Every structure is written in C-alpha cells, then in structure tokens.
Amino acid sequence: MKKFNKLIAAVVTFAIFFLPLKAMAADAWAVAAQAAGIWAIYQSTLKSMLKFGNDVNAQMAARRQDIEKNGTAKNPRDVQLVDDIMTKLINSGVYELKANSLPFIWNVNNSDKFNASCYPMDYVSINLGLLKNMNYDENKIAAVLAHEMTHGIEQHAAKIYASAIAQQLGAVMIGANVESNSKPGTGGNVDWSKLGGMVGYSIAKSIITPAEYAADEGGFYLMTSAGFNPGGGAAAMAKMDYYFRFETRDFLEFDAHDKPSEQTFSDHPDTEKREEKLAQLMTDYSCGHVMVKKADRAYKVFIDGAEIYRASYDDAADKAYYFAGGLARAFHDYNTVDGWNFRTGAGNSIDFLNDDKVFKQVREIAFLENIGARIKSAVTAAYQNDFKRQQYLDAEKKRLDAWKKIKAEALAAKKSYAEQLRINADTYNDYGQGELALKEIQRAMEAKNQNDLAECLAIRGRAKAICGDFDGALKDCNDAIAQDSKNLFNFLNRADVYHMRGEIEQALNDIDTAVKINSEIWVSYKLRGDILDETGDTANAEENYRRCYELTKKSPHSIPEKYLEKIDADAYKKLTQKDDDKAENSD
C-alpha cells in the first residue's frame, strides 16, 4: 500500500524537472489497460480530482504547506521577478480558464532544487533553484512558468491522477483474473515482481510524456502571446539539458542513462527532443522563415536557409535562440518588410525594429557583429517567398477560436458551476485575497446561469473593501441589499465592509438584521464576536463566541483560543496539545 500511495503522490503535481521513475517495459500492460471497470474508476477519480482542484481551501492549504516545508525566498528581488513574470503571463497571455478551474496563485520557495510544479488547484510552486539555474533570465523562466500554467489550464494533474489510479487498479484486477483462471499454485502468467514496473512505465510514457509535450507547446503559445521572446522555451530546454549532463550530482534529479533505447524511463521526455520541438514551434511562429540548428558546440541561425548568425561557446544557445526569437517575432507581427523599419544607425550600421524588449538581443548582436545589412537582405528576400504565412495565421485563428469556445462553455456552464464561482470568491475574501475574489466574482457575474447577482454584488463589495476601495465597496453592498433584502449574507458582507471602514455601529446594526432574518447562522455570531472583541467588550464577545461554538457543533477552530479556553477547557487543551505536537514534529 505504501508503494501505491507514493505512486499517487508522484502524479498529483507537475514538475518541469523530475524524479527518476524506474520501470521495465511490459507488453502485458496493453492487456491490463483493457480491464473491465477501468473506465469507471477513471471517471470517478477524475470527478473527485476536478472538484478538489476547484476548492479554494485546498489551494490555500497547498500554498501554506509548501511554505511550511520549503520556506519562502528571502530576497525580495527574486520574488518580484517571478511576480512580474506571472502577472504578465496571466494578464497578457492568451488562454481561458475552464468553469471549474481556479485563478492561479504562486510562491517562490527556498528550495535549491532545479524545479517548478503546478498543483491540481492551480497553485504554482517555484523553487529558488530554478531561478538560479536559469540565471534569473525572464524569458527562460517565463517558458517554464507558462509550461506549468498550461498543466493547470488543461487540468493535466487531475487527469493523470485519475489515469494512474485506474491503471494501477486495472493491472491488479487483470492480475487477479489471470490468477483465478490459472492452474492452482502456479500464480498465473503475470510476473508479479514486474507489476509495479508495468504501472510505472505506463504512467511515465503513455500518460505523463504526452502531457509534457502538450505543456511545452501550450506554454510556448502562452508566453509568446504575453510578449516574451519566442526563443525562451528552446533556450530553457538547452539550459536544462546542459545542467543534467554537466552540473547536477543529485541522482534524484536526473538519471544520466535515461535514453529511449534503455528501460530506465523518467516521467519527462528527453530534453534534446523537447528542445527540438520548441525550436520548431519558434520556426513555425516565424511563418517558416527562421531556423536554429546545432553544430557541435555552436548554434547557427538561418533565414530561409541562408546562415545569418553563428553563436559559439559560452551562452551559445541563449544568444542564438534569443537572436532567432527576435527575428521570429518580427516575421510573425509584420506582414511586409516595411514593418521592420530598416534604417541607418550609428557608424553607418543598419538598425531595425524598435525598443520592444523582445528585439533587444537581435538588435544588439546585429550591431556588434555588423550584420544588419545581411539581415536586411535576407528579410527582404524572405517576404518574396512568404507562402507559409497564411497557413500559420489560419492555425493561430483556430487556436483563438478554441479559446473562445472554452470561454463560451464556461459562461454557459450549469448553475452549480456558477454558484461555485460565487462561493470561491467569498472564500477568497475570507482569506483576505481581495484581488483573487474580484477575478472570481467577475466570472460569476458573467455566467449565464448565475442565480444570485445580488449576493455577487455584496461579495464584490467586500472584495473591493479588502483592496482598499471603500466607497466602491459600500455602493456594491447597498445595491445588493436594494435588490435582495431577505438574504442575510448581503447584510453580513456590508457589515464587514462597515467594519473595515471603521464604522462599528453600522456594522453591528447589519449583523443584528442578519440575525433577525435567521438566528441559526454561525457566521453572524463569529463576526459580531470579532468586532466586540476588538472594541474591548469581552463579555458580549464571549457570549457571541459561545453561540458560534454551539452552531458549528463545537468546532474548536471557529473561535479564538483565548475564548475557547473559557468556553470549553477540554477542547482548548486538546487543540493546544495538537499544535505543540505539530511544532515538535516540524522541528
């Protein structure tokens, strides 16, 4: 059972790098995959995982546990770098969340492992070791984070977890069936010593590997649409390959003999192959004009077969891919050579394009190598042979249409999904995450099957107050109550807004109204107890916490510990003992 639990844990998150997953090839798995009941197991587990992935409490718990285990990066510049990249990917990248997906949150932890991962509930964990090994290069880091975001957008973790469970149980079912139909005492014709390998091999190569390639591709489109250099993905993979070959000494990070010809498969595909695929995506993005080819320790950049630039030795991959990425972006964005704005620059050199960061490397290298004229000649000729442009633009439109379809499906999702968006926003408010609450409540209000727009307004008002917009907050809450004065939560949301505004009397009046509507809702007493405690009215605060405690069926976490000790000494003792034990275990 321990091995089974470890296998499950391995596929709950996605990492750009990997732990080796040893396995032995087994043709018998093809038979095992057909086991009766596997599809039902898969569907049941997938449903549970998708629900788990749409749980704000689970998302916040994942972040908290990651921080408790791995800490948080101490240098504010490291955190700011990732914040800037993630914000740009989220706000400028082209993608859509499914109706049952949460908005992304992230954290830079203090681990030195060369890694990043995405949890099923769209929490992205970024190791400090990733930033260091990517030399704090925003384009390479953006490629990694866009890859991880794609895992979340496509809900890969939930699907792989479900597949892992189904295949693991399916293999056991097939084995049991063979056992029952064999001669007594022979154990059937399944080699049980290889069963774990069969499952591991299947998961690594038939489930995880395709998802990795899909995340590479989706990440490429996401990061380029957000304005990062199209060469960032291939450059990141080249760096990963170099690290695995020459830098790491941690066998848990990489198996040096992980080759397709050998039976020691990891859960990530070969880095060289991934680099080639990402480089080809960049070529396609350039409408087929720009190509990078490896030549021993050098990288050569071509425009329509004509060599333009050769990068050798230190940082050769970065130079070549960023040079090529700038060219690719220009070919993608400009339908004619006029868009390149070729002109005479310093020292009679040929300058071109503009100050957009994506063009920085290609312009600098062109100046240093004095190859502006060569680039101009090749680019001019390329537009005379631009027959692949329409083909790529058609493919790009098809991808955009697919995102529009996903958004339309999310907006038209059934009532339960629309309600969950509202609940998610309210829960984000409970955690003090006003910006996330605003994102989620906007989705809720746009949903066609949303059945309580008044409560949405009240939740949005509370979120605005958390973000500091007190006037906008009060207006939303007033509008909510005007639309529905029978919903006690509209009054409680406004009470909290008044509370944040420092208008205590108005807050307590709204709570009184909520209690009159329904006196059996514990939140009313919790909020009133908190306000009274803040004002120093401990006697009345205790009375309200007692009522809250009763209504939550004596949940010790529902009230502050200093009041719990008075209300239920035994529960207080047990709770504090658990906290002490937890602290000792963490030490």
Short description:
This protein is an alpha+beta fold. It has helices at about 1-10, 30, 40-50, 55-70, 75-90, 130-135, 140-155, 155-180, 195-225, 230-245, 270-285, 315-335, 360-370, 370-380, 390-410, 415-430, 435-445, 455-465, 470-485, 490-500, 505-515, 520-535, 540-550, 560-565, 570-585, and strands spanning about 15, 105-110, 115-120, 125, 290-295, 300-305, 305-310, 345, 350. The radius of gyration is 28 Å and the shape is elongated.
Helix content: 55-70%
- The number of E-state strands comes to 9
Principal-axis shape: elongated
- Taking the alpha carbons of the first and last residues, their distance comes to 28 Å
Helix and strand content put the structural class at alpha+beta
Report the uncertain regions. 1-12, 16-36, 173-205, 251-268
> What count of helical segments does DSSP give?
25
Range of strand content? 5-15%
Oligomer: single chain
- The residue-averaged pLDDT reads 85
The strand order across the widest sheet is 1-3-4-2
The description of the largest β-sheet is: 4 strands, mixed
- Over all CA atoms, what is the radius of gyration? 28 Å
Task: Note down, in words, how this protein is organized.
- A hairpin with a 5-residue loop joins strand 8 (343-344) and strand 9.
- It is built from 25 helices and 9 strands.
- The protein is α+β, with helices and mostly antiparallel strands and 587 residues long.
- The strands form 3 sheets. It has a 4-stranded mixed β-sheet, sandwiched between helices. A 3-stranded antiparallel β-sheet has the order 5-6-7. Strands 8-9 form a two-stranded antiparallel sheet.
- The chain has helices at 2-10, 28-32, 38-52, 56-70, 76-92, 128-133, 138-153, 156-180, 195-225, 232-247, 271-285, 316-333, 360-369, 372-382, 389-411, 415-430, 434-446, 453-466, 470-483, 488-501, 504-517, 522-535, 538-551, 561-567, 569-586; strands at residues 14-15, 105-109, 116-118, 123-127, 290-295, 298-303, 306-312, 343-344, 350-351.
